[in-house]
Amino acid sequence: MKGYIKIDGELCKGCQVCLTFCPKSSLSISDKVNASGYSPALFKEDGECTGCAICAVVCPEVAIEVYRG
Amino acid sequence: MKTVYTHPKYLKKVPFHYCPGCGHSVIHRLIAELIDEMNIHDRVLGIPPCGCSVFAYNYLDIDMTEAAHGRGAAVATGMKRAFPEAIVFSYQGDGDLAAIGTAETIHAANRGENITVISVNNAVYGMTGGQMAPTTLLDQWTTTTPYGRDAKTAGHPVKMCELVAVLDGSVYVERTAVDSPANIRKAKKAIQKGFQVQMDNLGFSLVEVLSPCPVNWKMTPVESWEWIEKEMEKVFPLGIIKDTTGKKDAD
């Protein structure tokens, strides 16, 4: 894997903007609910990540951290 | 392992109170990133508006002073004159900038005050429940225009960037949007240029950012981001409206 992301499930409000813009369609929505009552975004188990950070750029909640290497 | 993106240093790590998909938090983040990258955290002063983003000082870890509704540019004028070495920006919504604060904004621009105004245009009054704003598009549904905005009774959308650009005091005016990764990056560059214009003592800069308001537009977050591209950008074209920075010399 070239890159990986960390999603803070408590900050995420499940707006799904990151799902729309991920070029590899590697994100999905969790079936669990966080403390605020939102279903947060989740990195798919078989998802591919290039570390492009587009998800972090569009995330309105600053809930995504991106690493590469 | 290289960190490509992490939480900005000058953005407090607390959950935003904004609705899911709101553009305010994206713009807060861009400002926080720029403060770190431009290394101006010790001399930047911000003025949050009235409206949803009134709590901007809860998120940005810098000195901020609240202004009365619409008076951001007037308060920024005073702050800049009292602290000429400070970098002063006012963060204002469209109701704040284009309705109640039109006079303050236009005259601050006309005087060529050395401040940066960041205007967030979401085409409605967000916090009060989605009433018609001056920037509401024609035929757009809001709670006070249930049959769509009619130009005969409610006028046309106000384009503040174009209004300010015709004034001799304004130096840099650009309109950007929060609707795609590319445009978010452009918005960051525009705000950076706005701060740079101020650091070079060139004059008034205005950066308008088209921002989604999914709740009051009655859309999902993704639909609202698409709506900006499909509808809003036709009325409010993106790009640099005015840039005379090359023609002016720094003092």
Q: Do you know the CATH architecture of chain A?
A: 2-Layer Sandwich
Number of strands of chain A: 4
Mean pLDDT of chain A: 93
Give the largest chain-chain interface (CB within 8 Å). A-B, 28 and 29 residues
User: Whole-number radius of gyration of chain A?
Assistant: 11 Å
Number of strands of chain B: 10
- Report the major sheet of chain B: 7 strands, mixed
| Largest beta-sheet details of chain A | 2 strands, antiparallel
Q: State the strand order across the main sheet of chain A.
A: 1-4
Which percent range fits the helix content of chain A?
Answer: 10-25%
Mean pLDDT of chain B: 93
Q: What gap, in angstroms, lies between the N and C termini of chain B?
A: 45 Å
- The N- to C-terminal Cα distance of chain A equals 8 Å
Shape of chain B: globular
The CATH H-level superfamily of chain B is Thiamin diphosphate (ThDP)-binding fold, Pyr/PP domains
CATH class of chain A: Alpha Beta
Structural class of chain B: alpha/beta
Domain tally of chain A: 1
Instruction: Work out the helicity level of chain B.
Output: 25-40%
SSE arrangement of chain B, N to C: EHEEHEHHEEEHHEHEHHE
Contiguous runs where pLDDT drops below 50 for at least 5 residues of chain B: none
